[in-house]
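Key result, reporting period 2: structure in, sequence out.
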């Protein structure tokens, strides 16, 4: 029997990893908790910042153009932070699961998006043909444009991090009694759920954070796909309907600028149209994020597909922590 329980625990841990839930496994959760202790996280951040500054200074001194120094420093910071989050904090596991799930259920995503798209297109298309928007977005420097996109992304992320824990707590409350065993059907915990009297266990804080991050990544990928689709729509719509003379009139310029070529190929796209399309697509992503978690009908449809997997995670965790470890 001990070996059976140990085998079941190992299979459940593999199931956790496969479903983007590394923080549910005991060893991984303990390791994550150690890395997120105040002293270690402070030391890691200081090391990342110091390394990024050193790289930025070195590149700024050695490069022919000093402006590449800050670029190299920021790129180093993001790369090291991504490595820390992806490898040590296991966020790459969650992201890969979210990508697989999103692209595996595109057919379910389109009906959800069609609820938001009509109002979304009406709002942003009106802005797209507004002269003031072109004066603001088209005349931004590229650094300011990407800063605005990053600002929209941060606001959307903060909004999701405030609202998504409510959904996790709701699922925790619903997984109880006979429903716990039913939720384990089709998982490695199904047999043990019938043999062990497993009570719904309160999720540890890192396991709860894991579920929130899984939901966050899943929603972020949907928003990214929507924003990319709207970017293409604005580029095509603007190329077909808005002439260069109109753009010059709106932006009060005496000429339009071609988008810089990449890899030796000229793109039939003006810089002004590109910048306005990027700005409005990112703004639409923020709008869609707010709509997705505040509209009750959309929320019920969106979480209907995820609630089963969230319930499974909570139920399997209850069985996992109830398995005898020492016999």
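The corresponding designed sequence is given below.
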């Amino acid at each position: 029997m001990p070996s059976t329980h140990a085998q079941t625990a190992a299979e459940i841990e593999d199931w956790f990893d496969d479903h983007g839930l590394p923080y549910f496994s005991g060893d991984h959760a303990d390791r994550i908790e150690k890395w997120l202790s105040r002293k270690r996280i402070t030391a890691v951040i200081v090391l990342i910042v110091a390394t990024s500054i050193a790289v930025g200074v070195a590149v700024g001194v050695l490069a022919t153009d000093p402006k590449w120094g800050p670029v190299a420093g920021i790129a180093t910071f993001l790369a090291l932070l991504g490595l820390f989050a992806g490898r040590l904090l296991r966020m790459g596991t969650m992201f890969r699961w979210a990508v697989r799930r999103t692209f595996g259920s595109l057919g379910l995503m389109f009906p959800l998006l069609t609820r938001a798209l009509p109002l979304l297109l009406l709002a942003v298309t009106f802005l797209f043909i507004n002269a003031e928007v072109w004066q603001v977005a088209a005349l931004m420097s590229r650094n300011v444009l990407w800063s605005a996109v990053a600002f929209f992304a941060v606001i959307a992320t903060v909004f999701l991090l405030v609202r998504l824990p409510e959904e996790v707590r709701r699922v925790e409350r619903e997984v109880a009694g006979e429903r716990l065993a039913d939720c384990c059907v089709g998982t490695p915990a199904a047999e043990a759920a019938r043999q062990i009297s497993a009570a719904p266990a309160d999720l540890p804080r890192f396991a709860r954070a894991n579920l929130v991050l899984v939901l966050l990544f899943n929603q972020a990928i949907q928003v990214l796909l929507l924003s990319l689709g709207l970017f293409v729509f604005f580029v095509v719509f603007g190329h077909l309907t808005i002439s260069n003379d109109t753009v010059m009139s709106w932006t009060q310029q005496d000429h339009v600028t071609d988008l810089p070529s990449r890899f030796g190929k000229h793109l039939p796209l003006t810089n002004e149209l590109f910048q306005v399309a990027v700005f409005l697509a990112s703004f639409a992503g923020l709008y869609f994020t707010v709509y997705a978690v505040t509209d009750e009908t959309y929320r019920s449809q969106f979480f209907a597909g995820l609630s089963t997997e969230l319930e499974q995670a909570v139920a399997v965790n209850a069985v996992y922590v109830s398995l005898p470890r020492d016999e």
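The chain has a mean pLDDT of 79. The CA atoms of residues 21 and 150 lie 27 Å apart. This case is discussed further under Risks and Mitigation.
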